[in-house]
Amino acid sequence: MAEQQSSSSLIVSGDATATCWSCGTMRAEHFCSACGKVQPPVPVDYFTFFALPKKLNLDLPALEKEFYELSRRLHPDLFARADAREQQWSLEQSSLLNDAYRTLKDPVKRTEYLLRLEGVELEDQSKSATETARATGEMKKQVVPPDMLEEVFDLNMQLEELRAQKKMGEDDPALLEEIGRQKLEFEEKLEALSHELQGIWRKWDQAIDSNSEQERIKIRDQMVDLLNRRSYIRNLVRDVSEVLES
Ligand SMILES: [Zn+2]
């Protein structure tokens, strides 16, 4: 597993100070707790931005409430007559807030982000990565989950056949049905993986609570495995849809 990516790239840069620039008392994360002035963003990850532990089970309604509360307090209208620095900081805090919220509210994005903070580089199986790989003829880093080799091989053969048929302007209903059935199976697998991921979250959160380094690494690797598997299957489903709709 590649671990070269530094987590520092996930953290926004800023001037980290422990006291409020305006009144000099201990500052809170976004606004001074004493004078209420907006503070310059400090280098923090998204969990810390929301004062959350690096756990995966989140109280989503509470997160949403906090997001709207901070959005309201950071609204540009409120800084229209503030000095240039404060305007700038409120914009920076606002953009950080949006990024943090978008990432944390989504179960998969949240997990991927946490794994990147843990120094893990996930396989890039996004649509754009696939398209770039196709366009450049470059091999994309994509490993077939070993227990799926046979299934994937069969599916690819059938997709080839269907593509050829479509070119000739004919459709074999039996082949279409078979491919449709497999697509459904893969979609069910995706659903099952989402449930499985939530089970792993619980174990992760327990490992954080018990401060077990060994357990944390074990669970981290389980999540990486699951997410890579998930994006692999998601890509398969996408490929099948493309051929069916072509
Ligand atoms: Zn202050």
Helix/strand-derived category reads: mainly alpha
Q: Can you list the ligands bound to this structure?
A: zinc ion
Q: Which bin fits the share of residues in helices? A: 55-70%
Number of DSSP strands?
Answer: 0
Q: What characterizes the major β-sheet?
A: none
Q: What average pLDDT do the residues reach?
A: 85
| SSE ordering | HHHHHHHH
Report low-confidence residues grouped into runs of 5 or more.
1-10, 12-16
- Give Rg in angstroms: 23 Å
- Taken from the alpha-carbon principal axes, the silhouette is elongated
> Count the helices. How many?
8
What percent of residues are in strands?
under 5%
| First-residue to last-residue Cα separation | 37 Å
Keywords:
mainly alpha, 246 residues, single chain, binds zinc ion
Please outline what is shown here:
The chain is mostly helical and 246 residues long. Helices cover 61% and strands 0% of the residues.
Write a structural description.
- With 246 residues, this protein is mainly α.
- The protein is 61% helix and 0% strand.
- The chain has 8 helices and no strands.
- It has helices at residues 46-49, 60-73, 84-105, 107-117, 127-136, 149-167, 173-210, 213-245.
- Helix 2 (60-73) runs antiparallel to helix 3, helix 6 runs antiparallel to helix 7 and helix 6 packs parallel to helix 8 (213-245).
- The longest helix has 38 residues, at 173-210.
- It starts with 45 loop residues before the first helix and ends with a helix.
- 16% of the residues are buried.
- Residues 1-10 and 12-16 have low confidence and may be disordered.
- The structure holds zinc ion.
- Zinc ion is lined by residues 20, 22-23, 25, 32, 34-35, 37.
- Residues 20, 22-23, 25, 32, 34-35, 37 line the site of zinc ion.
